[in-house]
Structure formats: C-alpha cells, structure tokens
Queue: 4 jobs
Job 1
Amino acid sequence: MKTNIALIGFMAAGKTAVARQLAQRLDKKLVELDALIEQRAGKTVARIFAEDGETAFREWEIALIKEVAVARNQVIATGGGIVLNTINVDRLRQGGVIVYLEASPTAILKRAQASTAVRPLLAGEDKAGIIEKMLRFRQPYYDRAADIRLDTSAIAVNAVAGRIIELLKQYEDFTP
C-alpha cells in the first residue's frame, strides 16, 4: 500500500507550497528534500553548488531519497532535478504516488524572480532562456516519472492541493 505523495517538477512550480498544504490537509509528515539536504550538509543548496558542484548535490539527493522513500505517510517536496536519476524515481514510486506539478516558463520566471530563494541553476543573464532550455531537457524525465500531472501556472496553491487529493482517489493502492 502506498502512503507517500512525492511532488516533482521544475523550480518554482509550487512543490514546497503545495506539499505544505497537502501535509496539513492529509495529516502527513512534510519532507522538504532541499531543506533536509541543507540540514545534513550543514550548508545551503547554493553553497553546495558553489563549493562542491552539482554532482555533489545530486549525490546528497540520492542518499536522502534512499532514506526518505522507505518511510510512510509523507508528502515529499523534491528538488527540480530529482527525476534525472531513475533510481530516485523508482525509490519514490515504491511507496508513493508521484505528482508532477507543471508550470509554464512564464509562470516559472515570474515566481523565481519574486522569490527570495537562491537558485544556482538560474545564474545568468538570460533567465527565460535558461528556463526554457532546462525545461525542454527535463520534460521527458518528468513525463516518465509522473503518475499524476497538474498545471499550476494559473491555479492557487490550495486549489492545486484540493485537485491532487481528488486525483489520488483513483489509486486503489494509495492510502490517504
């Protein structure tokens, strides 16, 4: 029986905000993977990227997904690149339903610019171009991983959470 909900999607698609809502509404534990990595590594994601590189960050993701995915009754907000390694997806799928939160490049850019979060992969002048290029590359990975997909571009967080709860009812092997 699956009891976890894993949210995947590009940066600024709403994974953390929606995860908070879902965890509260379904009385599940919230696991925010980037925050957990920062706690365990003793430094921010931005510092990990700057000092150790993206590969080191991805190694943290793999190690912590292995640990987190075996627990039950969680809503897991993943990082945007979690799907690049099929081992992560396989581990998340064993005990949970994977929900892909999509957003348009325009919505992503607007949210990323409004956020105070440091986004190492958006370092550069042409942020819109970076977003479009990365989305184009990652799209097949998101598509393969998703059990459920929802476009969050023009939907409020609470509405997205409500829609996910409705869609989860289709999964016989999922226990809310």
Job 2
Amino acid sequence: MIKTGVVGACGKMGQEVVKLVLNSPDLELVLAVDKFKTGEKIKDNVIIKDDLLNSINEAKPDIVVDFTQPSVIFENIKIYQKTKTKAVIGTTGLSSEQIDEIKKMSKENNTGIIIAPNFSIGAILMMQFARQASKYFSNAEIIEYHHNQKKDAPSGTSIKTAQLMISENSNFKEGNCAEIETIKGSRGGNFIENNKGNIQIHSVRMPGFVASQEVIFGSDGQILKIHHDTINRECYMSGVKLAIDHLYKNNNFIYGLENIL
C-alpha cells in the first residue's frame, strides 16, 4: 500500500484526488490538508488539518499530491523537500527560476518530485503534437481557456506547450509587421525564454469552462489548429495515478507528465 496524502483536499481537484485514493486498492489515504473544513473527517482515521508540516510529521506519507494555490506552492515544496517526502505537484504558477531551484533541491535532498502542468493524457498528446508541428510552421499562437476561478494566467499547460514548441523553433513571428496595440494586452502575452519563442499566449477566463487549449499554426496558404477540451476533472486522475505509481518506484525530479508516458 502506498501511504498517500492530499494537500488542497477540499478544492475541486483535491476532492477528485481523494476519491482516487479511496477507490484505489493499492493506495491508502493517510493525510488531508486544507485551510477549509478543518476538523472534518474524511475517513475514520483521517481528519482535515491545516498545518502541513505537522501533518506530514505525524502521518509520514510515502507521497503527497498537491493541488493548492500558486501563492503557497513553492513554500509547500520546501516542506516536502525538508521532510524528504516525495510529491506530485499539480498546482501551476511556478516560475522557471523556481522550477530550476526545485530541481536542485530534489537532487541535494535525494527526494523525488513530479511537477506536471497537466495530467490529462489528451492534453499531453496535444502538447507533443504541437512540438512536432513547430518544425514545419513559421508562426504560431496559443489560446487557453479556463474557468473564472483559476488565479494564474497564462496556464501552466500553455507555458509548457510553448517551451516544447521553442525547443523545435526559435522564432514564431517570422514575417510579422511591426504591431501597435490600441488597447494594451489585446495581443496577449508574448512568451520568450532564453531569447527564443515569440509565441503570443491568450488567456480566457469564463464560467462554463473547465480547461481547453488551442494551438494555431500558420504559414502561407494554410492554418493548422490543435485543440483539446477537458470536459470534467475525472480525466486527470489516470495521469495522477500514473505519477504516484512512478514516483513510488523512482526518486528523481520530473517536469512534465510526458516524461513518464
């Protein structure tokens, strides 16, 4: 049995992870942390608590799954590393510099961690298809759609997609004219990393959406669109389970679920 903790257990994603753990014969829920519903019982020996460090020291989970908030995730990861607790991170909003630091901490502490901007197998394939297409198109933009309670923009999935794309093509604005925005931000955010990229990312926040993304490629005489829709959050759970199983048997740093498919 894999002793599993869920951090952010009362959030929409956290609730799905709790269901996954309770319904998986090889997983045992030993810890639930959230700032809401503190003191409520999830199962006989698991009560929701709000102190992450003390909860880990008491329950001693093999792995924690974290779906919290961008404002706290980096500090949470420091706690996981300090206590040598393996962690699957679904919370987005980490900067490239923070991810580099986490990779360093993981190696120094010999404590595995998986950071995945998206756990949907379809979304992972969408990102891989976009990477492959980037070799053949001179221009591309990304539009990502999420529910209006998502706090960070652009999404971690769109950033990861852009990173994969620029690994194949360093400039996606070939032939563009000089632009003037009469309304600031109307062209979205221009993603550049290590002086490469030039991919406009547009973030839509609207009730009714769960998560969707479209990558649009263009060249003379043609347009290619790669689109993925998340209908409900259950689709993420197979990826979460895959990450838990991998991390239980391994002890390395991984950024992106595609690295273990």
Job 3
Amino acid sequence: MGETASIRLSRFAAETSIAGLSSELAGDVVNRLVDLIGVALAAVGDPTAKAVEETVIAWGGEGTSTTFGSGLQLSATSAALINGTLAHALDFDDTHLPSIVHPSSSVIPAALAVGEEVDASGDELLTSVAVGLEATVRLGMASYDVESRNHVFFERGLHATSILGTLGAAVAAGCLYDLGVHQLANAIGIASSMGAGLLEANRTGGTVKRLHNGWAAHSGVTAAQLARSGITGPPTVLEGRFGLFQAFSDDRWSIDPVTNGLGQHWEFPLVHYKPYPTNHFTHAGIDGALEALRQGVDIGSIRRIQLGVPEPTLRTIAEPIEEKRAPATGYAAKFSGPFTVAAALAAGSGLGVGHEDFTDAMVSDPLRLRLAGLVECVEDAVASERFPNAFGGVLRIWTDDPQPAEYRIVDSKGGPRTPLTDAELDAKFLDNVTRSNVVMVPGDLLETLRSTGCGTGVRTLMAELA
C-alpha cells in the first residue's frame, strides 16, 4: 500500500509545522483569527451558547484554556466546544467555495484552546491554524460534484462543516500536541468517526446547528488527545471502501482535490469573509437589494420582487416559502431569501444589514413582512452555472413601471473577486466586539496579534484592554 490520503495530509501538516509559514500566509491567518474572534465575541449571550456553557460547567473540571466572553479557564476540549459554538452561533463565520464549509469556526477554537494548554508560540499557533484550515477546505472539495455543480454532502442534508471541520480541528490540535506523522493520521482516522451534522435546522428550525462547529472543535481536540494516548484509526479512513467519502458521498467524490498540489498551492486564502450575519446563500439577494437602494428605488412603490438564485440553494433559503416569508425567529430569518432581501430594503441606507436586523422582535416588523411577502424565489440559470464557485444571483423589482428593474450580482461581496477592504474588515470586527459587555480573549493571543501587525480594529481592542 502506498501513502494513503490521511498520511499525505499528516506529512504535509507535520512538515509545515517545522518549516513555518510565509509572511503572506501568516498575515492571512491573522486576519482570519481577528475576524473569527469578533464573530465569537458578538455571540456572547446567545441562548444556544449560554446553554452549551451551562452544560459544560455542569461537567465540572478546570484547565488552562480561556473561553471567550466569560473568561472561564477550562480544559481544551471544553473551551473548544464553547468557543466553537460562539463562533458559529450567529452564522457570521467565513465560507470556502466550492466546498461550502465554514473552516475557521471549528479550526481556530480548537487551535486556541490547545495552544493555551501547551503554551504554544505565536508562530506555532498560526501554523497550526493554517494547516487545519487547509485540511478542512481540501477535504470539503473532495465531494464537490462537477456534473451537478453541487456539494454531495449538502445535497444529502449533511453539514460538511461539522463533519470535515472535526478533521481539520484534529489536524490543528495534533500539530500543537507535536504529534508525529502517523499519530496525526490516527487523529484524522479517529476524528472521521466523530464528525456529524444535519442541515434540516436550516429549513425548519431548531438551535442545534449553532453548536455544530463547537462540537467539531471539541471532537477534533479529543481525537488528537486520543491519538496521543495510543488510539489508532484506519489508514484508509478517507478513500477506503467503508471510509468517510464513500460512506457520505457514495461514488461521487475524488481524492485528488485533497492531495494534488498539497504544500505547493494553498487553498484556504480563497475563503470568503461574510459582510452580513446571515446564511451565505442569501448574500447575493442582499447585495442586489442594497444596489437597488443606491439606485434610488422607492420601497413604498414596490409591487413584486423576484429573487433568482442557484437552484441548489432554494431548499435552504426558499422552502417552505410560507415560513421563509414570515420566519418565526431572528435566527430563522438569517436563512430566508425573502426576509433578508426585505431587511436590506427596509434598512434603507444601502450600506448593509447587521445584527439588529435579525432579532426576534424584528421578524414581526410590518414593513419587513410586507416586503418579504412580495418575494418570489426562482432558479437563475446564470447563478446555477457558476455555483458553488460563486454565490451570485439576480433581483428583479416591479414598481409602478410594468418593466422590472434588474440588479444582477455576479459574485456576492466578501470573496477574492469582490473582497472586503481592510477598513470594512475592521468595521465588522469593531461592530462585533461592541456587542459584548465583556471582552475576554486569551492574553497571549493579543500579544500574538500585536506582534504580527494586525488591522486597526484589533489595535483599538488592544488599546482598550491595555
């Protein structure tokens, strides 16, 4: 048997841990740390995160890993669970295409928790995050089906982030635990039996999805610890007859995206930042609505709205249509094409939508409900053709003029082709942080960010904490 895929991933991770990162890659990781910390701090007080924290506290035990917001000192596994839940609770974490995974919100909490436990250096932390992110997105790309232009996990209702984020978290944690190549491969093999997650909550409700990435971070750290203690995993856990990809994707997968160019080409810098705290499939519609405002649409004269999106996304943001037009909660509104378009139009500024637009109180707002009720969701062939390599769409608005105004979005804002500026990333970070009454992050992390030359948002935070 030649080198299996898990061995190749593990060798890449171990060798990178020794060699370190280029300054460009290290800077990219810092930006993702900053973004993720802000997103997690914004979720402090979220009911799901509070319930997870209460559960973890009831388990008992102390440690050296810090939880965001509360500053509790817990075991690495417990801190990773809480922080990963905070990171994904508001659906504001970054997204990779075409894998459609949110890599940072499982990998970074795992790396931070273990990094504190082992007193890792800043360079060790950044490198562990980089290899964990790279592993996650490459594993996600393996089940992208070119023929259907969709991710097989997503089509089957499986949350690729919570499943594959567990493996990425295990790689990041394993590097910080200084595992050798075969121990890292065992960690991947163990983590492959731990990852789980279903997407039905995106459609019809429930709060469990908010903790998916926390559980992935928790499980990834646990897998690395078990590998360190001698538990082994199957060497062909990824490509084997009863391995992860065959089990979750039948024959619709390829190992090539996982291993081709590994170490020469880095995929994680292509991960998209989110400018809005909503499901990424809704962003093209929001962008279209904001463009309509900038062009002077009179929302009082709107008679009909049509939102065209990639066909695979309709199941998440348009069905059941009655519930999407009148979501029951602010969180459910984040997964609604009609309501997110309505929120952007009703906000009126043309600058964007934020946390305040997706509260439980706001889903009862008469103006937003009226506008959402006018939205029809359909497939747009152009957007379907480019999905999931781009999140595009088209918004058509009918007013008193019988001909609709059309606002086409080729790439939603936040990706490499339409990037957020440094100022926009700083503004997002500061807006997220100001939502928290308590700002608590690992002290050494601030020193790491200070030493790597971060954005003004973090400099402002560090000045406040000085």
Job 4
Amino acid sequence: MKTRWLAFVLWLTSLTAIVSACSSGKSALKQGDYYDAVLSSVNRLRGSPQHKKATAVLTQAYPLAIDFIETGIQNGLHSNDPRKWRDAVAGYSRINYLNDQIKTSLGAMKVITNPVTRFKELADAKPKAAEESYQDGVQSMMKNTREDAKQAYFAFKEANDYQPGYREVIEMMNQAEFNATLRVAYEEINASRINYGSFQPIINSLQRQFLSFKPLNAFDSIKPQQVLRLVFNGYYQDNRVQVSSRNENIERSIKVGEKKMPDGKTQDIMETVKATLTIFTKVKNARSEALLTITDEATHGYLQNNTVDGSARWQYNWAVFKGDQRALTNDQLNLCKRSEASPNDNDLYNQAMNRLQENLSQQLRGFYNRY
C-alpha cells in the first residue's frame, strides 16, 4: 500500500512539474521571451518526449529565438557600441547553449533535428571581446582613483576570461588590484594590567579583496594609507555589590467555600487575605573600554577617534513575605523560594569583554564597509 501511495505521489509531482513548465513556456512565448520558451519546452520534452504542447512551443519558439539573438548581434556589430563584441560573445554562447540543451533532450531532438551552432563565430569574437575589456581596463586605470582601479581590475579579469593571458592582462590585473587595495597598518596596545588576550580575530574578520590589514611593523617599502590603533584601556567593576529592597502590601479576595441560597442557587464565600512582600535586589556592574583611532597617513588627520566600551550587569532578585501565603501569586511565591546569591566575577568579565569585541567589530565593519 505504501509503495502504491509513493508511486502516486511521484506521478502527481511529475505531472504538476510538466503542467507548470508547459505553462511557463507558453507564457514566455507570448511575452516574446523566445529563449526561455525554448528552454522550458526542451526541459519538458526531456521528461515527456511526446508532450504535444511543448512540441508546439519549441517548433515555434526556436527559429524566433535564433533570429532574435542573431539580429541583436549583427545590429550591435554595425554600431558604435563599446561592448558590441562582448555582447556578440554572449549571444553566440546562448545559441550554443540551446544546441547543447536540445541534444540532451530526446524529445527536443525529434523536433529540432539540426540545431544551429556558432562555435567558430564565438571563437573569432572572443579575442575582440578581450580587447574591448582590456581597453576599458586601461581607460579606468588612467583615471587614477581607487574606485576606477577596481573597475579596471574587473575589466582586465573579464578580458582574461575571454582569452587567458591576453596581451599583458595578468600584469595589468595585478597592478589594478594593487592600486585598488586600501592598505591598513594596525597596532594593538594594552594600556592596562589585564591580560585580555587579543583583538586580532576582529581585524582578521575585516580582510577581503581590496582591503588589506597588516601589523604596523610589517610595512617597509610599501607605506600604508591608514593606521588603525586599538588601545585597551582596562576593565572596571563595582567594588561592592549594591543591595536594595522594596515592600509591597498585597491584598486579595479569595474563594474559601460555597453556600446555598434560599432560591437554591450557589454563592461563593470570599475572604480577604493580606501579606507584605519584601523584594531584595542585588546588582553589580562591570565595563571594559578601548580607544579606537583610524588616521589617514597622507594628512595625518583622524578618520575615527572614539572610545568603545562593553558593559555587563549582574542582577539577582529574591523575596520574603509576612502574612497569608494565599495572597501571593505563583511568581511571587517562586521568588520567595529563592535564596540569596552572589555574582561570578569571571562571568561578568567575560560578558563585558564579549560586548566590547562585538561593539568594536560593529564600528570597524561600519567604517570599512564604505571602502
């Protein structure tokens, strides 16, 4: 029984997918998206080689898709579009991709027996596309800004993708990446007597392409553009636990029984109960602190200069009561069952240091996200 049910579910799933793909293929065809219409119908025929609607869509959409792509390529090549050869590569690649998809679908091969290929045209267009990208990279490099160097890097990388090793593209790509990279020297100073560890993991998490962090003493001939300093000023906590208390006078009306009235109805017997609840609160605060400075080495001006801290707080409540216990809620009763406790100084320290690291990380990420 389970096997039959599983087979039915699989059949239903397959049928749903077929109906959906057929619908999407027809919709794409109606909207003039011939390329997607071809892919949807080919995929449908891969699972159901005799599918009539998919066959009809493919028969109509394929020649339209090829004509549309090739017309776009030729129009581009006869224009002054600076990306015309890159667009041609994209177009020829799409035509070849349709060929690959059709040849892996038995049903589609019966409909399109001789799919179009443009392998030679693609091979001829790639060096010209590489030259386009290469020249874009050169123009961006000449602007001599960090953001343009980024654009140059990606243009040279694109040229290398079209034709590996094209001209001196590898060297130009490396130079563009160097010019686009912000080099930051960092220094960590402990101005306290506490061995807190290191903020190195925070710095490491900032490393990414076009953003390099190295220790201040690691720079020699290549000068940094910024210097980041993290000065740990110390950890502070309250010398004594602060204890406070407050009283609550509680009065409640509770049901203590029932009685029958002359008319036969039942009436609750209520009683007023009272209690005095004394709630004690213990508090101990802690704080860690660091100075964050980022300076521009060209101007020696501050880009960031502020104190960052991490706060921690331990708080504990318990209570005692006098009077009738029935006046208390369950939460108040549970509070009365608690005994006095004391803070764990190690937990406070760890909490304060974790908060400091989180706040430092947040500020540094916010600052360097603009780069």
